[in-house]
Sequence to fold (362 residues):
Amino acid sequence: MKDLKTYLSLLLFALMFQTYAQTQTGQVNQQPRKIWTVEKANKWYEQWGWLRGADFIPSTAINQLEMWQKETFDVATIDRELGFAEGIGMNSMRVYLHHAAWQKDREGFKARVKTYLDISDKHHISTLFVLFDDCWNPTFKTGIQPGPKPGIHNSGWVRDPGDLYHENPKLVDTLEVYVKDILATFKHDKRIVLWDLYNEPGNSGYGNKSMDLLKKVFEWGRTVDPDQPLSVGVWKRELKELSDYQIHNSDVTTYHNYGDPADHQHWIDTLRSVSDRPLICTEYMARTRNSLFGNIMPLLKKENIGAYNWGLVAGKTNTKYAWDTPMPNGAEPKIWFHDIFNADGSAYKQDEVELIRSLTKK
Fold:
């Protein structure tokens, strides 16, 4: 009997401790919520007005790790470059996180995210955070990051979690804690527009191998149930199973399009034929593909679609170079692929900046 009492006491203590731990992340007895209703999604969208901005990383960072690690978190550059965006009337940025930076220094990482939000809010700029990503380099390592390869687009960008997810089954436990910790910490932060749970799932040849993590991250996000909506952007309709899942599980519909106006309009019409939810374009603008500020940004404004072009300030990511036309000699490309400003704040094309200002009424 004494042993039984001891066992029950220990069990009760364990349950109390578990409940306390869950309380700290808002996870007590919570089941994944359902997708937002169309009415809720549209009402949410109305409060933001026309979202317009860029996919942002400071020019001094080559990838997400260099942006967020303590040693290279560049407050001065972030502040200055978000000031460039504010100056042309941009009011929102899409920003990538990385679980490895969180894993290395959890509380420090979250403090730096808060610092970023404080800086962006000072510039009247909201934030759309990205959690996972299937693009570019398959492996990553914390610490000092490699320098950019001359003339190579995104030579140092890293996937998250990349190949490691398929090689180490136990990683899923870490990723679940990461997602729930970040969302629970910032679930009521009014400076955050939405959570982009997974950038371009299935890219880099993964295809449907990414479906498992895609489903899990939606489940984790819905369990936390932040005030902000959850979404994963459609980027390649040929990946039908992934795309359909993204569309039917996102609270608001997000997408990428680097095509010309006719192609972009077709995407808009197609997405609206399958979804009555607000549309937000989270990547566009590739000058050599005729996806320009002059022909796409007015279209997005007319259609009341959020508009986030890739790239703000040219820097270590080398995104002024095109995906498929590397320039290993590092020469200046005749036409910038992405980005708006040089590091000193001067515009790549002044007429583009004036056009953006005219559309944002800045």
